Each structure stands twice: as C-alpha cells, then as structure tokens.
Amino acid sequence: MNVLVINCGSSSLKFQLIDTETEQVSAKGLCERIGIDGQLIYQKNSNEKEVIAQEMPTHAEAIQVVINILTDKDLGVISSLDEIDAIGHRVAHGGEKFSKPAFITEEVFNELGACNELAPLHNPVNLIGIKACDEFIPNTPMVAVFDTAFHQSMPERAYLYGLPSRYYDQYKIRRYGFHGTSHKFVSDRASELLSVHNPKIIVCHLGNGSSICAVNNGKSVDTSMGFTPLEGLVMGTRSGDVDPAILSYIAEKENMSISEIMEVLNKKSGVAGISDVSSDFRDLEEAANLGNRKAKIALDIFSYRVAKYIGGYAAAMNGVDSIVFTAGIGENAITIRKEICSYLTYLGVVFDQEANNTRGSEREISKKGSKVKVFVIPTNEELAIANETAAVIQL
Length: 395
Ligand code: AMP
Prior knowledge:
- This protein has helices at 59-70, 106-113, 123-136, 156-159, 165-171, 180-193, 245-254, 258-267, 270-275, 281-289, 293-316, 327-332, 334-341, 353-357, 381-393; strands spanning 2-8, 13-19, 24-32, 39-44, 50-53, 86-91, 102-103, 142-146, 200-206, 210-216, 219-223, 322-326, 363-364, 373-376.
- It is 38% helix and 19% strand.
- The strands form 2 sheets. Strands 5-4-3-2-1-6-8-7 form an 8-stranded mixed sheet, sandwiched between helices. The protein has a 6-stranded mixed sheet with strand order 11-10-9-12-14-13, with helices on both faces.
- It is built from 15 helices and 14 strands.
- The protein is globular and about 60 Å long.
- The protein binds adenosine monophosphate (AMP).
- Adenosine monophosphate is lined by residues 207-208, 236, 280-282, 327-329, 332-333.
C-alpha cells in the first residue's frame, strides 16, 4: 500500500511516500519556514536533495506544495494522486479519547479539535494538514496516528499527579506521555529479538527531545514525559523534572512572568542551559574532550538521569529483560550509552564494549549471557505511521 505520511510541526511539514509492502520510500521532504518565507527540501528515491524556495503562508499551501512536487513531471514519483492509497497523519495529542490510531471521519475530526487545548502549538496545525488533504486529495482514506496513544495503557498510579483530584476531573490534568509511535515501534522490534514470554522492556528514546518508557508485555505502563513533553529526562533545551517551587522563586528574583519562565524551561535549559555550549551532543562531546567542565557536567547529568529512570522502571515492572537505545543520541552516542550502562551492572547488564563501539544499525551491545539484553534499535516513526495507517485501512 502506498501511504503518504504527513507530520505537521509548528512551522514545518515533513512528508514521506512509503510502500508498506516493500518499506521503500519513493520520495520524502521537508517544508520549512512555513508562514515566514517558505522552502522545500525534497529527495526523490535516494537522489541528491533539492532545495526549492516556495511561498507557504500556512500549512494548507504546504500540502499543495507536497502534492505539486509528488506529481511533478520531472521530480515527481506518481503520475496521479490516485496512486496514493492512504494518508497517515501524525497527531501530537489524542487526549484520553484515542488509545490507538483512528480512521478519520467527520466525527473523529471534531473530536480531535477537542484535544487542541492540550497541545496548542501542535494539534491545530495537525488539523489544518488533515483538512487540506481532505480538500486537495479527496476520497483518499486518512488515519490519525497519535504520539500519546501508546501510553493510554498506563495505570492510574502512573498517570495521576499528586494534585487535588478536581484538576484531573475538571481539566484532565494527568500524565499523557509522548514519542508513543517510536516507543511502540522499537519495543515491538525488541520483543521479536527476545525469546521471552511477556517481555519487560525499557526503551530509551534519546534525541533532542528524550523520553523513557516501561513496556510490559507490549503495553506502556509508565513513561517519563507527562502532561507536556517537558517532564522527565534532562533534554537538549528542556529542563525535565525540576522542583516546581523553583518557578515562583525565579519569578520573584528576576521579575519574570509564568510564560517567560516556561520559555526558559522549554528552550534555554537542558544540556544547553547547563553547559552554555550547545544542545547538540556532538558539540558537547567535543567541548568536554577539550576540557570544558560545564559540557562534561551536562553529559554526566544527562546519563545519570537516564540511569535513575531505568532503575525506577525496573522497579515498576519488578524486573527488566531488555533495555533499548534509540533516536539520534541513543543510536549514535557511543560514550553516552557506555556511561548509562556503567550504572546498570546491579541489574545484571554485562556490557559489550566492542559491540558498542561499532557503528551500524540494529545490534546487541550486551555480552552473551548478560541477564538483561541491551540493544540499539533505530527508530523509524514515518514507517511506523505508514504501517499503522495501512493496518487501520485493511481492517
Ligand atoms: P534526534 O532528535 O533524534 O534527531 O536526535 C538529535 C540528537 O542526536 C542531537 O543532540 C545530536 O547531537 C545527536 N547525535 C546525532 N548524531 C550523533 C553522534 N554521532 N554522536 C553523538 N550525538 C549524536
């Protein structure tokens, strides 16, 4: 099945056209600077990337740009829109309503609107993308695949905060978790690699945004992001867990508003804020190797927080069969994986330094006989969305 995957961000739109039978990507691209000046970065098969200036005042024009390029006589890969069998939309927040991907009907579209409040930067643009596809590619089935859905299996003890219960009753303030498509994709693959009945897996999705998920027998039972993607690990520019009393203390000291403090917690904190160097782990490793103390501390704090969460989730599941690293840092940062695993010998992890040092794709980085198997498994959110879309359509 030929699935067009659409991922609308706040000022960008990523797309891929994927054949789910062969898992081949025939074209992919990124519309960026939407609402500013507009630019399309486009790649057909594995040809060179093309950068094309295109005006895109909103995400609706960006969808038109995607359609034009896919059907272009020279650069395109399809001769008619009929060759698109289905469209899979990544949707940031499905609230409590959506615990799995949903076939988009008018009713579902209206229900998605109700989740806008929970993700004001992302959900409204996801809906614009859906509406534009409905208009420009009519009669093509569409599926919404949610970042939050996989975590809807979390029990109350994991998703409720220690706050007055009326906040949950009135405003649905609870932990939702994110990166669900990636956690599911990677944990499903780890289950295939393990020959264990009811496997207990901890997935470490470590990228610019990072989260950890405890997956017990295919179900998310806890995850580190919460009501928003700010909670949990120390990230590129996000603080992760902090004592909330710090907010009022800083507000008073620096005469700042709540929204200014939120900006600091989201955009100026994390390893970038700690180090004053960069949010990029390659820059941090380089600086640390050159003796930059703050860069070294930032990396130490990052690994330590990951290790603490792993310990917490091993306790939550009363054991762990496998720990998996994925995303930009998880797949590539050799020293970070080594540092994290150095905290885990008590769990029975026997780390394989040599396997960890080799670059490559999917592999085991624990030694034969390690009680807990440690894997690197590349995530592929677009393929996961395409597969989930195909599965809903074929039901
Ligand atoms: P993502 O958000 O999944 O694209 O991951 C982005 C993060 O991965 C950035 O912090 C990058 O520095 C990091 N990253 C990518 N490649 C490497 C590498 N070879 N070594 C260390 N970090 C890397």
